[in-house]
Fold this protein.
Amino acid sequence: MKFLHLNLLWAWLAMLPAFAAADPTAVARLWEKSVVKVEVSRNLYDYYQPWNRRNDRSIKIGLVVGERQIITTAQDLSDRVLVRLQKGGRGKWTNAKVEWVDYHANLAVLTTDDATFWSGLQPAKLNGQAPAEGAALQIIRWREGKLESRSAEFTQFAVRQSELSSISHVQLELSSEIQGAGLGEPVVANSQIVGIVAAQRGRTCKVIPAAFMRTILAARQAGNARGLGYFHFYWQPAENPASLAHLRLPGEPRGVLVINVPERPDAGEQVLQPRDIILEIDGFDVDLQGDYLDPEFGSLMLENLSTRGKWAGDDVKMKIWRDGKPLEVTYRLPKYEFAHSLVPTGVYDQPPDYLIVGGLVFQPLTVPYLQRWGNDWERRAPFRFTYYTGEEATRDQAGIVILSQVLPDAFNLGYQEQRGFAVDKVNGQRVTSLTELRAALQQPKDKFHVFDFVPNESLQRIVLAAGDAEREATQRVLERFGIAEATQITPKAAALK
């Protein structure tokens, strides 16, 4: 009889994960000691009036993953003023600190020195395996004091851009009826963490996989995380048989065709050339669509091989076809930085830069500035600005400075309606940054400032008096509009060396 009871007990324990998967409430209870709420108070800047800011507060979800370590997404952690933690979905808030944040990977680790906060919490292990197609998943979050569990269905693995950066890595895509997700909610399958939600659009949720997070955390702990690298070249699928025949590639069509190799941001050796055919990367065959077969995630775009266990500065072995013969090359991954783009995709932990002279407001062109046109900014923002997005910064063209608006004053009468033009030269000097603009303003031409703009359909040049009249006008504008400073330029390390 005891033997029978023991067998029944083991059978019941074995069925617990199945019961939990069928009962969302049971799933939630399994994670009450591992999931916490994160409150972030931060400065939110107005990129149209960059001297203005307001306070913002957001609630995120964190997952306890180690001794006094909580992982969450990096979203809403920029320009933070105060970060607090809450366990159990209600009650006392505890001040936290950010141990590190990686905006490119969209991950951050939080902690707190309050020993009482950790009492009763239990670390979760990021050991979830890749779910099968159509697998039943659960999204976990604290909501109104209760741990909510909402069902989700796995759809695919895909290589997508990070939410906060142009870096690309593998992500899960889920379908769910949940609303307002995308703030670090854990995703579980069979009582294991498979990732955290980074974004939601409609029913589709983008999830950072557990495997990617494990790699980041392990590298941080070992002290060898050097930032994410990327492939700094452009390619297209090798689908045109005529092109392959012209390049004398024998056998079945395969590989991708390199079409552009920009100047490397780290001044490293260029080992690829236009018209090279990439056949293999790190031992993985590349098909003519630009995909390879990943042993964990299946068919993925080759861009993932730059972040699959790799860091900036690591070497990647490639087999290519050049000039009618095979060749093996070693490609060193450059470190991804926002400043490598002509129009930076992110500006974090610093106020927006601007410079006001005589009521003319100049700003660097950035994606955060363009996002003031809304979520559909790529279509709604002025084409003369969006035209530059996606282009690489170079030593000769490190950025774009724009005349964003003119604050009216008698000094700039006639120009007050002008706005939205890219600057070419100021006082005869080429301008690609606010630092260069400030230097050019120290050298007026015949007591006048001459602002030349990139050729456009209307405004080509503005000429204003320099000297006392200009300085007095700037001061009047500052007082009239309640602006504390005429210039905000954040010091930056040289991006292109």
